[in-house]
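ok posting inputs for the zinc ion job
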Amino acid sequence: MSTACQPVIRSQAHPPFFVGVDLGATNTKIGIVDDLGQTLSYRTIPTGADDPTGAVKQIAEEVLDTIHVAELQLPEVAGVGLGAPGPLDLRQGLLLAPVNMPAWHNFPLRDRLAQHCRLPMTFANDACAAAYGEYWLGAGRNVHSLVLLTLGTGVGGGIIVEGKLIDGFHGHGAECGHIIIDYRDDARMCGCGQHGHLEAYASGTAIVKRTIEALDSVMKTSLNARMDHGAQLTPKLIAEEAEAGDPLCLEIVLDTARFLAVGIVSLMHTIDPDAVLLGGAMDFGGRDSPLGRRFLVTVRQEVRRRAFPIPGEQTTIEYAALGSDAGYLGAAGLARAEYQRHHPR
Ligand SMILES: [Zn+2]
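and the output
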């Protein structure tokens, strides 16, 4: 998804200021955000995933330079929010075992970055940070509670109730991608190594696996021709062919919506949120495309079929609004919430 933010200039901004950092396996996004959630300056840099020590040093330099480009002095910045791929040890500030980042296992990210930046740090799971971004500034800005599911290589989750992030006693709360939707021992294998989790059915990785299996079925498909011409089987290719009317690809996409709905109903029956938002790169074109709209309608229908009647009718199910900016905006928002706890108005 594209960038949602138009930066504002210093004279239009409202102090205090916060830095949001969204660390990813490939790229890291850094932004300076004011008290109203307006971005003054932001940038995306390659993470340098093989060398965490060097990467943290570079991120710190980029943070300080982004502050400088926003025409701010360091004392005007009240804190840094840092979102990182889970699982995390939130109390110790560690990345535990992020998938795709083997060099970062048990890495003390929060304290290392704090040493370089000399600013207070607020540390959160990246999907939780994105959920907070949507709650503060995005598709959830008018609700009291929400669940964000991020669909990409995996399925991430973030839960906000009355402005509070639900990250759990061990810091492993809101792992919505690992809700069990099939209890059988031979259920699909999840990226985490367990069977039957939502992510094993509804992630980008799962869609490709399910499609490979379905290629042997009797259903006609245009995929074979595309792959014969060298196209790689990706969620994007499957979405393109579904959009063009390929029955097999369309069925794969709509089944994904139904699997997702099973997980969503469990979350609704646990939390009863105002809104469930769908974010992440795998949005099938989102609300701007017929396929994206059909995907969303299928999720809603399946939720209504399976949920208690009142939440089934009344819970908002929508696409998230901030795209890939949700992570750094939410991280900055969490730093702001932490600041406000210590400096009540
Ligand atoms: Zn799992």
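notes: The two ends are 36 Å apart (CA to CA). The chain has a mean pLDDT of 95.
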